[in-house]
Structure formats: C-alpha cells, structure tokens
Amino acid sequence: GAGVSQTPSNKVTEKGKYVELRCDPISGHTALYWYRQSLGQGPEFLIYFQGTGAADDSGLPNDRFFAVRPEGSVSTLKIQRTERGDSAVYLCASSLTSGDTQYFGPGTRLTVL
Amino acid sequence: AQSVTQLGSHVSVSEGALVLLRCNYSSSVPPYLFWYVQYPNQGLQLLLKYTTGATLVKGINGFEAEFKKSETSFHLTKPSAHMSDAAEYFCAVTLRRNYGQNFVFGPGTRLSVLP
User: Which chain A residues are within 8 Å of B106, Cβ to Cβ?
Assistant: First the structure.
C-alpha cells in the first residue's frame, strides 16, 4: 500500500520568504509527526498530532514554525520569514495511533539562500 | 531528559564480516529503544525495537540488538555484512509510549561495506 508521501521533495527559497511543506500520512493513521534533520545529525522532533490537534509541539524552535492538520489526515508545516539556519530535511512520519511504529516519508529538503 | 550517543560516525566492514554499531542512552526511567536505517534518498525504516520482555530483539534483514540495562546500551549487530547493508543507522529512545512518543535520535552511524 501507499506509504507516507511528502511534497515537494526539494524546496529552494530566499531568506525571509514563507514556505509550506506537505505531508500525506498512511491512510487510517491517526498520529502524525514532524522532524527536522540537519546535515550529519539525527532527526530532531518538532511536533506531534493525534487526530486534528497538536498533542505535543515542544520541539518547534520558535514562533516562525507552525503546523496544522485540519481534517486529521494531511498536515502542513509552515515556516514564516525563513532563515538560512532553517535549511534541513524535514521528515514526516505517521503511526496507526500514538505509541505504534512510526513510518517515515522520504522528506522535503529545504534550502534557504 | 533522555539522550542517545552513537560511538563512531562512520564504520567500515568487509563483506561477510560482523557488523557492530554501538548505541548508549541515558534515561531516568526504563526506555523504549529503536534502531532505524536510512538508505540514500529514502525515508527512515524501522529495523527493530525494544519495549518490554526479551532483551534480545531480532529485526529485519538479519539484524538484532540486545538491551543491556546495566550498561545502558542497545548495540546493533549482524553476523555477516552484505553490500546492501550500506546505509545510515540511527538509534532512538523514547519514554512516553502513549503521549507524543517524543523520539530522541542519536547522530547516526554511516555503515560502509567493502567488497
């Protein structure tokens, strides 16, 4: 069956611009996670949704980052006023419910010039 | 807060040799432990996990790991390396199984397999 998909696969933007990254989880998965992976590092937790609500957003680095999941399926990670330090691969994962195995998408590589 | 260290950012082995990737964690309470593999341009894939029960855990592709509480370790092994095992491997720990499952990943170990 279809796995987690993320679009776009690559995004290049200029400093100060706004970007949106999309995640389509596996159908029927109620839990959805966003991570950020910088070069040479392991993924870093950003935010977790159970259904439509953000159950844990403690990993968001600052208020320029925001994520939504309005219908409990697709999620969008939004970054305002991008900075060069935001350049990374943004990973999305989903699980059947909280506590189950997470399945990861291929990621979106964001480059801020 | 929990943390994960992986000794060796890059490990090279010959095809057919033993693979040993090291993972140590710190945690104030018993953790759940995971190994993920990341092939180039692909998403992370779960190799194996330890939650409760048997401390020797077998995963996919012939990998296994042993949870050793006294050593706070969860090292990943495979008896005989294949060329297809070349990838990045991440150890991860979490404490809250039913709330957020806030994973903390180690920095990763890149495994190269030499012919």
Answer: 42
